[in-house]
């Protein structure tokens, strides 16, 4: 498992790639924080950081639960925060 201070490369799709499908690297990041929290504790600014700038926290929770089997608003999720290290490695 990653921990604060680890540097990783974000990729478009890692699991579920077909044989021969290229690994598309997006950018390098450094992990700054990892913690467990209830999904329904997400704030409006967290929803924006997740890439949903026009959604409310309630809308995001509904979307997340609908797209993740077995997830409910009170489910504890792992929250991983990072900072970007530089330019994209490839597209």
Low-confidence stretches: none
Structural class: alpha+beta
Q: Proportion of β residues?
A: 25-35%
Query: What is the 3D form?
Result: globular
What are the secondary-structure elements, in order, as H or E?
A: EEHHE
Tell me the span between the first and last alpha carbons: 26 Å
Provide an overview of this structure.
The chain has 91 residues and is α+β, with helices and mostly antiparallel strands. It has one domain. 19% of the residues lie in helices and 31% in strands. The protein is built from two helices and three strands; from the N terminus they run ββααβ. A three-stranded antiparallel sheet has the order 1-2-3, with no helix packed on it. The longest helix is centred in the C-terminal third of the chain and has 11 residues. The radius of gyration is 15 Å and the shape is globular. The chain starts with 6 loop residues before the first strand and ends in a 7-residue tail after the last strand. The mean pLDDT is 93.
